[in-house]
Prior knowledge:
The chain is an alpha/beta fold. It contains 13 helices and eight strands. The strands form two sheets. It has a six-stranded parallel β-sheet with strand order 2-1-3-4-5-8, sandwiched between helices. The two termini are 34 Å apart.
Amino acid sequence: xxxxxxxxxxxxxxxxxxxxxxxxxxxxxxxxxxxxxxxxxxxxxxxxxxxxxxxxxxxxxxxxxxxxxxxxxxxxxxxxxxxxxxxxxxxxxxxxxxxxxxxxxxxxxxxxxxxxxxxxxxxxxxxxxxxxxxxxxxxxxxxxxxxxxxxxxxxxxxxxxxxxxxxxxxxxxxxxxxxxxxxxxxxxxxxxxxxxxxxxxxxxxxxxxxxxxxxxxxxxxxxxxxxxxxxxxxxxxxxxxxxxxxxxxxxxxxxxxxxxxxxxxxxxxxxxxxxxxxxxxxxxxxxxxxxxxxx
Length: 295
Protein backbone atom coordinates (compact mmCIF):
# COMPACT_ATOMS: atom_id res chain seq x y z
CA UNK A 1 0.00 0.00 0.00
CA UNK A 2 2.83 2.38 0.92
CA UNK A 3 4.63 1.44 -2.30
CA UNK A 4 1.51 2.13 -4.38
CA UNK A 5 0.96 5.47 -2.68
CA UNK A 6 4.58 6.43 -3.33
CA UNK A 7 4.28 5.50 -7.01
CA UNK A 8 1.10 7.54 -7.30
CA UNK A 9 2.83 10.52 -5.70
CA UNK A 10 5.74 10.25 -8.14
CA UNK A 11 3.31 10.04 -11.06
CA UNK A 12 1.44 13.14 -9.88
CA UNK A 13 4.63 15.12 -9.39
CA UNK A 14 5.98 14.05 -12.79
CA UNK A 15 2.71 14.98 -14.49
CA UNK A 16 2.56 18.33 -12.71
CA UNK A 17 6.02 19.24 -13.96
CA UNK A 18 5.82 17.62 -17.38
CA UNK A 19 7.27 19.68 -20.19
CA UNK A 20 5.13 20.69 -23.13
CA UNK A 21 6.10 18.45 -26.09
CA UNK A 22 8.19 19.99 -28.86
CA UNK A 23 7.72 19.49 -32.60
CA UNK A 24 10.46 20.38 -35.11
CA UNK A 25 10.40 20.70 -38.89
CA UNK A 26 13.64 20.93 -40.83
CA UNK A 27 14.49 23.08 -43.82
CA UNK A 28 15.38 22.56 -47.47
CA UNK A 29 17.92 19.84 -48.18
CA UNK A 30 17.94 18.69 -44.57
CA UNK A 31 16.10 15.89 -42.80
CA UNK A 32 14.55 15.00 -39.48
CA UNK A 33 17.52 13.29 -37.97
CA UNK A 34 20.78 14.67 -39.36
CA UNK A 35 23.23 14.39 -36.43
CA UNK A 36 24.88 17.65 -37.50
CA UNK A 37 21.64 19.66 -37.55
CA UNK A 38 18.18 18.59 -36.36
CA UNK A 39 19.45 15.46 -34.61
CA UNK A 40 21.83 17.57 -32.57
CA UNK A 41 19.11 20.07 -31.69
CA UNK A 42 16.73 17.30 -30.65
CA UNK A 43 19.37 15.95 -28.28
CA UNK A 44 20.11 19.42 -26.90
CA UNK A 45 16.42 19.98 -26.13
CA UNK A 46 16.17 16.57 -24.44
CA UNK A 47 19.28 17.27 -22.37
CA UNK A 48 17.87 20.64 -21.32
CA UNK A 49 14.35 19.37 -20.57
CA UNK A 50 14.73 15.80 -19.24
CA UNK A 51 11.82 13.61 -20.22
CA UNK A 52 10.37 15.99 -22.80
CA UNK A 53 8.64 14.41 -25.80
CA UNK A 54 10.26 15.67 -29.01
CA UNK A 55 8.97 14.99 -32.52
CA UNK A 56 11.21 15.81 -35.47
CA UNK A 57 8.92 15.48 -38.47
CA UNK A 58 9.95 13.03 -41.18
CA UNK A 59 8.04 13.39 -44.43
CA UNK A 60 8.66 10.10 -46.19
CA UNK A 61 9.42 6.51 -45.27
CA UNK A 62 13.17 7.07 -45.08
CA UNK A 63 15.59 9.86 -44.29
CA UNK A 64 16.55 9.98 -47.97
CA UNK A 65 12.90 10.44 -48.94
CA UNK A 66 12.56 13.12 -46.27
CA UNK A 67 15.46 15.04 -47.80
CA UNK A 68 14.18 14.64 -51.36
CA UNK A 69 10.67 15.68 -50.36
CA UNK A 70 12.04 18.97 -49.05
CA UNK A 71 12.69 19.78 -52.72
CA UNK A 72 10.07 17.87 -54.67
CA UNK A 73 6.93 17.09 -52.64
CA UNK A 74 4.01 19.51 -52.85
CA UNK A 75 4.03 21.68 -49.72
CA UNK A 76 0.30 21.32 -49.16
CA UNK A 77 0.63 17.54 -49.19
CA UNK A 78 3.54 17.78 -46.76
CA UNK A 79 1.43 19.87 -44.40
CA UNK A 80 -1.39 17.33 -44.67
CA UNK A 81 1.01 14.54 -43.77
CA UNK A 82 2.40 16.53 -40.83
CA UNK A 83 -1.12 17.15 -39.55
CA UNK A 84 -1.86 13.43 -39.79
CA UNK A 85 1.27 12.52 -37.84
CA UNK A 86 0.66 15.09 -35.13
CA UNK A 87 -3.01 14.24 -34.76
CA UNK A 88 -2.18 10.54 -34.33
CA UNK A 89 0.33 11.14 -31.52
CA UNK A 90 -1.51 10.85 -28.18
CA UNK A 91 1.36 12.55 -26.35
CA UNK A 92 0.49 15.77 -28.19
CA UNK A 93 -3.17 15.84 -27.18
CA UNK A 94 -2.65 18.66 -24.68
CA UNK A 95 -0.75 20.78 -27.19
CA UNK A 96 2.84 21.33 -28.21
CA UNK A 97 5.47 23.95 -28.95
CA UNK A 98 6.56 24.12 -32.59
CA UNK A 99 9.95 25.14 -33.98
CA UNK A 100 10.37 25.51 -37.73
CA UNK A 101 13.77 25.81 -39.36
CA UNK A 102 13.93 27.79 -42.61
CA UNK A 103 11.10 26.60 -44.90
CA UNK A 104 9.95 24.32 -42.09
CA UNK A 105 8.85 27.49 -40.29
CA UNK A 106 6.22 28.49 -42.84
CA UNK A 107 5.18 24.84 -43.09
CA UNK A 108 4.56 24.66 -39.34
CA UNK A 109 2.69 27.95 -39.52
CA UNK A 110 0.46 26.31 -42.12
CA UNK A 111 -0.06 23.43 -39.70
CA UNK A 112 -1.04 25.87 -36.94
CA UNK A 113 -3.49 27.65 -39.26
CA UNK A 114 -5.02 24.59 -40.90
CA UNK A 115 -4.89 21.95 -38.16
CA UNK A 116 -5.82 23.46 -34.79
CA UNK A 117 -5.90 20.05 -33.09
CA UNK A 118 -3.63 19.36 -31.38
CA UNK A 119 -3.03 22.98 -30.45
CA UNK A 120 0.22 24.83 -31.10
CA UNK A 121 1.13 26.85 -28.00
CA UNK A 122 4.33 28.65 -28.97
CA UNK A 123 5.24 28.86 -32.67
CA UNK A 124 8.92 29.62 -33.22
CA UNK A 125 10.28 30.48 -36.65
CA UNK A 126 14.03 30.26 -37.19
CA UNK A 127 14.86 31.89 -40.51
CA UNK A 128 11.44 31.16 -42.02
CA UNK A 129 10.46 32.91 -45.26
CA UNK A 130 6.97 34.07 -44.32
CA UNK A 131 6.64 36.48 -47.24
CA UNK A 132 8.48 34.14 -49.54
CA UNK A 133 11.69 34.63 -51.47
CA UNK A 134 12.67 36.32 -54.69
CA UNK A 135 15.99 34.78 -55.56
CA UNK A 136 17.88 31.70 -54.42
CA UNK A 137 21.50 32.75 -53.80
CA UNK A 138 22.43 29.27 -52.61
CA UNK A 139 20.75 26.30 -51.01
CA UNK A 140 21.70 23.77 -48.36
CA UNK A 141 23.60 21.54 -50.74
CA UNK A 142 24.97 24.35 -52.91
CA UNK A 143 26.95 22.06 -55.20
CA UNK A 144 24.18 19.53 -55.68
CA UNK A 145 22.64 19.23 -59.14
CA UNK A 146 19.19 19.71 -57.54
CA UNK A 147 20.08 23.30 -56.66
CA UNK A 148 21.07 24.26 -60.20
CA UNK A 149 17.98 22.57 -61.61
CA UNK A 150 15.78 24.33 -59.07
CA UNK A 151 17.21 27.76 -59.87
CA UNK A 152 16.58 27.25 -63.58
CA UNK A 153 12.97 26.22 -63.04
CA UNK A 154 12.23 29.16 -60.73
CA UNK A 155 13.73 31.63 -63.17
CA UNK A 156 11.83 30.18 -66.12
CA UNK A 157 8.35 29.65 -64.71
CA UNK A 158 7.82 29.58 -60.95
CA UNK A 159 4.05 29.95 -61.37
CA UNK A 160 3.53 27.31 -64.01
CA UNK A 161 1.10 24.79 -62.55
CA UNK A 162 3.40 21.78 -62.84
CA UNK A 163 6.30 23.72 -61.30
CA UNK A 164 4.08 24.78 -58.39
CA UNK A 165 3.03 21.17 -57.89
CA UNK A 166 6.49 19.62 -58.02
CA UNK A 167 9.03 22.14 -56.70
CA UNK A 168 8.67 23.11 -53.06
CA UNK A 169 10.58 26.37 -53.33
CA UNK A 170 8.31 27.54 -56.16
CA UNK A 171 5.43 27.40 -53.70
CA UNK A 172 6.87 30.25 -51.67
CA UNK A 173 8.41 32.12 -54.61
CA UNK A 174 7.11 35.68 -54.39
CA UNK A 175 7.70 37.86 -57.44
CA UNK A 176 7.24 41.53 -56.43
CA UNK A 177 7.24 42.54 -60.11
CA UNK A 178 4.18 40.35 -60.73
CA UNK A 179 2.07 40.51 -57.59
CA UNK A 180 -1.12 39.63 -59.43
CA UNK A 181 0.39 36.49 -60.90
CA UNK A 182 1.79 35.52 -57.50
CA UNK A 183 -1.56 35.88 -55.74
CA UNK A 184 -3.39 33.98 -58.46
CA UNK A 185 -1.01 31.08 -59.01
CA UNK A 186 0.92 30.58 -55.76
CA UNK A 187 -0.50 27.30 -54.48
CA UNK A 188 0.87 27.60 -50.97
CA UNK A 189 2.23 30.91 -49.70
CA UNK A 190 -0.48 33.19 -51.06
CA UNK A 191 -3.03 30.88 -49.48
CA UNK A 192 -1.55 30.70 -45.96
CA UNK A 193 -0.99 34.48 -46.04
CA UNK A 194 -4.69 34.98 -46.80
CA UNK A 195 -3.88 36.79 -50.04
CA UNK A 196 -6.14 34.77 -52.31
CA UNK A 197 -9.36 34.18 -50.39
CA UNK A 198 -9.87 35.34 -46.82
CA UNK A 199 -9.98 32.28 -44.60
CA UNK A 200 -11.10 33.46 -41.16
CA UNK A 201 -10.12 30.15 -39.55
CA UNK A 202 -6.48 30.84 -40.48
CA UNK A 203 -6.66 34.11 -38.55
CA UNK A 204 -8.55 32.61 -35.62
CA UNK A 205 -6.12 29.70 -35.30
CA UNK A 206 -3.07 31.96 -35.42
CA UNK A 207 -4.61 34.22 -32.78
CA UNK A 208 -4.91 31.23 -30.45
CA UNK A 209 -1.10 31.05 -30.14
CA UNK A 210 0.46 31.90 -26.80
CA UNK A 211 3.46 33.36 -28.64
CA UNK A 212 4.66 33.69 -32.23
CA UNK A 213 8.43 34.15 -32.33
CA UNK A 214 10.20 35.32 -35.51
CA UNK A 215 13.98 34.93 -35.61
CA UNK A 216 15.88 36.77 -38.33
CA UNK A 217 19.51 36.09 -39.24
CA UNK A 218 21.01 39.50 -39.96
CA UNK A 219 23.78 38.27 -42.26
CA UNK A 220 21.67 35.69 -44.07
CA UNK A 221 23.06 34.91 -47.52
CA UNK A 222 20.41 32.33 -48.36
CA UNK A 223 17.08 34.13 -47.88
CA UNK A 224 16.37 36.97 -50.28
CA UNK A 225 15.18 39.33 -48.94
CA UNK A 226 16.17 38.56 -45.36
CA UNK A 227 13.33 40.78 -44.10
CA UNK A 228 10.94 38.00 -45.12
CA UNK A 229 11.99 36.30 -41.89
CA UNK A 230 10.13 39.12 -40.08
CA UNK A 231 7.25 39.19 -42.61
CA UNK A 232 8.80 42.11 -44.51
CA UNK A 233 9.18 42.08 -48.28
CA UNK A 234 9.94 44.13 -51.37
CA UNK A 235 7.51 46.94 -52.02
CA UNK A 236 5.35 45.79 -54.97
CA UNK A 237 6.59 46.78 -58.42
CA UNK A 238 10.32 46.63 -57.75
CA UNK A 239 12.93 44.55 -55.93
CA UNK A 240 15.03 47.07 -54.01
CA UNK A 241 12.99 48.91 -51.39
CA UNK A 242 11.60 46.91 -48.47
CA UNK A 243 8.23 47.33 -46.80
CA UNK A 244 8.28 46.20 -43.17
CA UNK A 245 5.52 44.07 -41.71
CA UNK A 246 4.13 47.02 -39.76
CA UNK A 247 3.82 49.11 -42.94
CA UNK A 248 2.31 46.30 -45.01
CA UNK A 249 -1.32 45.77 -45.96
CA UNK A 250 -1.12 42.34 -44.31
CA UNK A 251 -0.55 44.08 -40.97
CA UNK A 252 -2.79 47.11 -41.48
CA UNK A 253 -5.74 45.01 -42.66
CA UNK A 254 -4.87 42.37 -40.06
CA UNK A 255 -6.17 39.63 -42.31
CA UNK A 256 -3.86 37.11 -40.62
CA UNK A 257 -4.11 38.43 -37.06
CA UNK A 258 -0.49 39.57 -36.83
CA UNK A 259 -1.41 43.09 -35.72
CA UNK A 260 -3.66 41.71 -33.00
CA UNK A 261 -0.91 39.34 -31.84
CA UNK A 262 1.57 42.22 -31.82
CA UNK A 263 -0.70 44.49 -29.80
CA UNK A 264 -1.33 41.66 -27.33
CA UNK A 265 2.42 41.25 -26.81
CA UNK A 266 2.42 37.80 -28.39
CA UNK A 267 4.44 38.60 -31.54
CA UNK A 268 8.17 38.66 -30.89
CA UNK A 269 11.04 39.71 -33.17
CA UNK A 270 14.50 38.32 -32.45
CA UNK A 271 17.67 38.72 -34.49
CA UNK A 272 20.94 36.83 -34.65
CA UNK A 273 24.13 38.38 -36.11
CA UNK A 274 24.92 35.40 -38.31
CA UNK A 275 24.27 33.63 -41.59
CA UNK A 276 21.29 31.36 -42.23
CA UNK A 277 20.50 29.15 -39.22
CA UNK A 278 23.87 29.94 -37.65
CA UNK A 279 23.41 30.14 -33.89
CA UNK A 280 25.10 28.73 -30.82
CA UNK A 281 23.66 26.28 -28.32
CA UNK A 282 24.09 28.98 -25.68
CA UNK A 283 21.93 31.40 -27.70
CA UNK A 284 19.34 28.69 -28.38
CA UNK A 285 19.20 27.72 -24.71
CA UNK A 286 18.70 31.29 -23.52
CA UNK A 287 16.41 32.68 -26.21
CA UNK A 288 14.37 29.62 -27.17
CA UNK A 289 14.48 26.85 -24.57
CA UNK A 290 14.46 29.00 -21.42
CA UNK A 291 12.15 31.64 -22.86
CA UNK A 292 9.52 29.48 -24.56
CA UNK A 293 9.98 25.75 -23.99
CA UNK A 294 10.58 25.50 -20.25
CA UNK A 295 7.51 27.40 -19.05
